């Protein structure tokens, strides 16, 4: 082999090495360019699964939770309200309310509750009046008290306040929600507002005292319903001219209830000339005489109710 032959051989060998190197590089590039899906299976899916797990922001409602009282010595055997709230999911509701626990039932329309901070309060339901069950027992008074006891005692309820927060006896005035409403539609009010449930089932009359009149229109409708079906207390009123089988004789004068003005201490028969002059804005009504007297009203001297 002469020198020429050897140098040609070397050139061929170099060319061959260059070609294999080039094809090797091409192979590497092809792989790294993503042609092989196997190279990517370990990569995490970049699509974020965030939106679905976001809980809606807590609106200014219901669970205006005061922080749980730590180490309060009040009755450890019954669970307090605060821990119960902290575990419940955030709820959107059209009302602003305070969650409390019912500790006892005084009457069909009056209860005692314990707040999240451990304090207790006597609560009078707004817009309704149950027959008396304690000092001077009225027809259906005991039944109304028992019914409220059965439905509320020991339970967590939601108090919604109206314009005026307390009455002259320093009782808290509230609309009592059994469950937080999703809206203020008629079916929601009918099924979740305990004041309404009382009236629908005939365990309370309507009693409107301005300015706390938020649900008065609904309550009026519910009372008509209860009267038409002779529910509860309306079943024992059938002889007074209010019930379904109204007698031919004219109803007694007080059968239509009694009225007064929020600007005076007097009460009247609705047909009294002075009653007629009360502005609808200030008009208060009571289902019977004792209801008017029990809130401190005195009879008008003109119509002598
Ligand atoms: Zn009068």
Give keywords.
305 residues, alpha+beta, OB fold (Dihydrolipoamide Acetyltransferase, E2P), five-stranded mixed beta barrel, four-stranded mixed sheet, 8 helices, binds zinc ion
Question: How are the secondary structure elements laid out?
Answer:
Elements: H1 3-35, H2 81-87, E1 98-107, E2 110-114, E3 120-125, E4 128-129, H3 141-152, E5 156-160, E6 172-177, H4 186-192, H5 194-200, E7 205-206, H6 216-228, E8 258-261, E9 266-268, H7 273-276, E10 283-286, H8 289-294, E11 298-299
Parallel strand pairs: 3-6, 9-11
Antiparallel strand pairs: 1-2, 1-5, 2-3, 4-7, 5-6, 8-9, 8-10
Helix pairs in contact: 4-5, 5-6
The structure holds zinc ion.
Zinc ion binds at residues 268, 272, 274-275, 300, 302-303.
Describe this structure in words.
This protein has helices at 3-35, 81-87, 141-152, 186-192, 194-200, 216-228, 273-276, 289-294, and strands at 98-107, 110-114, 120-125, 128-129, 156-160, 172-177, 205-206, 258-261, 266-268, 283-286, 298-299. Helix 4 (186-192) crosses helix 5 and helix 5 runs parallel beside helix 6 (216-228). With 305 residues, the chain is of the alpha+beta class. The chain is elongated, with a radius of gyration of 38 Å. It is built from eight helices and eleven strands. The chain has a domain at 78-203: OB fold (Dihydrolipoamide Acetyltransferase, E2P) (Beta Barrel). It starts with a helix and ends in a 6-residue tail after the last strand. The strands form three sheets. The chain has a five-stranded mixed β-barrel with strand order 1-2-3-6-5. Bound molecules: zinc ion (ZN). The site of zinc ion (ZN) has 7 residues, from helix 7.
């Amino acid at each position: 082999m002469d020198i020429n032959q050897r140098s040609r051989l070397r050139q061929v060998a170099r060319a061959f090495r260059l070609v294999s190197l080039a094809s090797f590089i091409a192979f590497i590039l092809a792989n790294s360019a993503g042609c092989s899906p196997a190279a990517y299976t370990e990569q995490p899916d970049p699509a974020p699964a965030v939106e679905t797990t976001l809980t809606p922001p807590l609106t200014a409602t219901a669970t205006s939770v005061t922080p749980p009282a730590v180490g309060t010595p009040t009755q450890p055997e019954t669970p307090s309200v605060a821990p119960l709230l902290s575990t419940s999911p955030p709820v959107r509701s059209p009302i602003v309310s305070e969650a409390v626990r019912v500790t006892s039932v005084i009457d069909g329309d009056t209860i005692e509750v314990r707040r999240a901070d451990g304090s207790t309060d006597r609560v009078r339901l707004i817009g309704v009046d149950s027959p008396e069950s304690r000092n001077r027992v009225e027809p259906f008074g005991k039944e109304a008290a028992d019914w409220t006891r059965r439905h509320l005692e020991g339970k967590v309820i939601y108090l919604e306040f109206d314009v005026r927060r307390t009455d002259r006896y320093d009782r808290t005035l509230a609309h009592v929600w059994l469950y937080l409403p999703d809206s203020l539609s008629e079916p929601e009010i009918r099924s979740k507002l305990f004041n309404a449930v009382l009236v629908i089932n005939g365990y309370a009359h309507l009693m409107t005292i301005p300015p706390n009149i938020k649900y008065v229109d609904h309550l009026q409708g519910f009372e008509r319903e209860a009267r038409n079906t002779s529910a509860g207390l309306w079943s024992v009123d059938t002889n007074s001219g209010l019930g379904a089988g109204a007698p031919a004789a004219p109803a007694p004068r007080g059968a239509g209830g009694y009225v007064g003005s929020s600007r005076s201490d007097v009460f009247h028969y609705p047909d009294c000339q002075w009653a007629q002059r009360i502005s609808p804005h200030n008009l208060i009504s009571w289902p019977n005489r004792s209801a008017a007297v029990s809130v401190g009203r005195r009879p008008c001297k003109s119509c002598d109710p």
